[in-house]
Amino acid sequence: ISERAKDLPDGYHGQVVKMVHKLIIENTFGNNITDPEHVKAVFNAHNANVIDKASADRLLIYELGSGWEPLCQWLDVPVPDEPYPRSNSQEEFWGAVSG
């Protein structure tokens, strides 16, 4: 575990934070999350790998903000009468992470 993760809190919440740190920051981004070009390259490489490996008939590439229509068409279900949910804003994310 990296030096940064050693200073995180103990207990369940702290263990979850340490796990996320290990899986995402260390293993996925190689401890380099401050370089936007590196982060974008890792993200794009991951997406390209998923597209390459997944069967086209089992993969929906959904663009954020597209609403219900592409998802419902993909699932062959009617579009709900309610607005498409919008959650996990930056404020909600940090509120949940900070415990």
Mean of the pLDDT scores?
A: 87
Major sheet characteristics: none
Low-confidence stretches: none
User: Strand portion, in percent?
Assistant: under 5%
End-to-end Cα distance = 22 Å
- Overall morphology: extended
Count of β-strands: 0
What is the number of helical segments per DSSP (H or I, 4+ residues)? 5
Give the radius of gyration.
Answer: 18 Å
Helix content: 55-70%
* Class of secondary structure makeup: mainly alpha
Order of helix and strand elements from N to C terminus: HHHHH
Give a description of the structure.
- This protein is an all-alpha fold.
- It has five helices and no strands.
- It is extended.
- The two termini are about 20 Å apart.
- The model has no long low-confidence stretch (mean pLDDT about 85).
List the helices and strands and how they pair.
Layout: H1 3-6, H2 11-28, H3 36-53, H4 68-75, H5 90-97
Q: What's the gist of this structure?
A:
It contains 5 helices and no strands.
Which short descriptors sum up this protein?
99 residues; extended; mainly alpha; 5 helices
